[in-house]
Amino acid sequence: MKEEEKIFAGKMFDPRKQELKDIKHKAHAACQKYNMMDEFDSDRNEVIRDILGKVGNVFYFQGPVQFNYGCHTFIGENFFANFNLTVMDDGKIFIGDNVCFGPNVSLMATSHPLIAQERMGLDEDGKTTMAEYADEIHIGNNVWIACNTVVIGGVHIGNNVVIGAGSVVTKDIPDNYLAFGNPCRPVRPITEKDSKKELILPEDREHFSYNLNCII
Q: Which Pfam families match (predicted)?
């Protein structure tokens, strides 16, 4: 079984095997190039598109951004990520439509054994043997993940969810909930009482018509 196949099968793998290093090097080089480009450069998006497993027609990464594999991440339509997105996509990561991330969001679809000897060894040639395993991350549609949030492998975040700033998401979050904390917990459902439509000026009503889902 190839190392990448071991990842997807939920088995232990060695991230330092050349097979995986080659995939990661392509992603790392693309991120480095992307992060050095001007944010108005029309060619910028194609640098990221080229390494991702999938991404919609409309997306924007403010940058800097860092993907570990890139090709293990699958993103829907109308995606936005603010500064300093880190994606450890050893395991596959699935992100739905109309999703936005605040600054310093980290998606961590990888882990190491807790027992030290299982985690890291040293062979007879003096080379480190590193052991990892990975669980997928699933993020639904219409999700906002606020700044400084960490999402751990194995987590499913439902549709229409808001994750509050500074959260560490270690367990599933159901649809239509506001959740926050460390560890992150569902706090309450999001309802019409949370509407902020009254903050929209009359002259901006047409501009925000798609947000309001109303007839102008």
A: Hexapep (PF00132), Mac (PF12464)
